[in-house]
């Protein structure tokens, strides 16, 4: 545990950075939740990471596994835990006591941006609507712990039930708000098997001889009493919230009675608790790239451009950022940061281009011939008074200038604030936007000149402001420096990762940031780069984030074959299910339904002869797609072929994202 005296000492040293980071965030146009910061030690940080950012979660082996994984990553792979912050109001952020001051400042600025995202993104507003998430999760933990300690309930049965539910924790409806399930039993169907069993019991009560029962009430007669209405199917439309459907209609299988019986109160409550938590954590999974990129962007603005990292801390901070952005694999921090920078640059470029296109004599056709781009770079450069603020330049600032914070300027002139350390205090949002205008940064100096003819024509077509300028200098004097940041905040409010990537990942972005696709090729037996086309890159990335990167499974029928069997459907997008994993999942779903469960999907099959021919001809074989039904009846797995007509409704179309490499399926 953290030494309380040491923690207090660290907290006191961080009071100023915490206060000023919040002040700067608001100046930059952010509107974060208030944040409470806590000092923790190494072990406590690993525990919090394992718990998903909270101090209390329900008892389960998964947390210990995640804790062990985090510790090993730190010890053997060189990973470092910089921060963890949870989505709550107020948000709670945890700072590891062993981190350097540069790391602590980086975490604080990063957290302020996360808290802004939590507060203002609509997807967080839709799913994470509990005003006190920590209290909600603590209540859940207490409820499940009580069940585990109940002498009338087998603890192992509780743990197994949790395992069964967790295999489906991502199978919720991401596009609807959480709504509690209140109906415990299905109204849409009659349990035919149970009715016939009841009838058999009543015949036994009549105390009829076996001879009479055999002659009059034989098995053929009993079977005829089963309803044969093939229209008793539900739901009317495929149900995405599989957990909600099972909560409402599911049963448990009684192994002693060898039949389905109603769930117990504790089973129903735990299922609903875990479903509620799945909805709470959904927006974090749905916005990982956006959220981490957003935090990395504003952290960089504060730490480097506003020198929140002191001169003696900058090298440590650069190392910190390199570790974050240099992580291998699909790195949401790096991808998100690059996309936000691209959004800012393209928005600012459009603002500049629109003004230049209003200059007399300049059209989208002659734009590149008539415009001196060196002159443009000089004209859009921020005012020197805004970029070079110190104690000696305060008198040059005009308090009537909308870029200047008149109140803070007076305080600075009176010596009440340290303008050498915090020059941003005397500027407004407009002043800071100009001070950090993206198009004048060295890495972006050619961004305006690279505008395509296609974009110029499109911009010209949709320009509705008919004001004209006599010169480029006059036009650029009216450029709105805040437009890029304003646009970023608009996007932050309404998008998730899928829509973000779909709208803003362009060929220009792919070329500038060197993205490409790769595939496993049967002809060579290894992975090869296959495309640098942005549509291919987008497809591959979209698969990674659609439905949290997991297969999309829906409930298609809760009375399959009119026998109360469950039919799940895999919304096939060109990527096969892991069949072995699907079998194991069905075995767990059986315990949540209580009766046989089915899953229909589509598989790709390759003929060995076609593979050999493809290798000789150095081309890829064409797989054949076939429909399959996997069924588990409580004892054994059965897999059978389905006619194509039976799986057409789940087949991939031309707009599906079907280029994901095999190892991404894990």
Fold and architecture overview:
The chain has 666 residues and is of the alpha+beta class. It contains 28 helices and twelve strands. It has a five-stranded mixed β-sheet, covered by helices on one side. It has a three-stranded mixed β-sheet with strand order 1-3-2. A two-stranded antiparallel ribbon has the order 4-5. A hairpin with a 4-residue loop joins strand 4 and strand 5. The chain is globular, with a radius of gyration of 31 Å. Mean pLDDT is 86; it is low at 184-193 and 657-666.
Q: What distance separates the N and C termini?
A: 36 Å
Structural class: alpha+beta
Mean pLDDT: 86
* Sheet having the most strands: 5 strands, mixed
Structurally, the number of domains stands at: 4
The global form is globular
Q: Uncertain segments of ≥5 residues (pLDDT<50)?
A: 184-193, 657-666
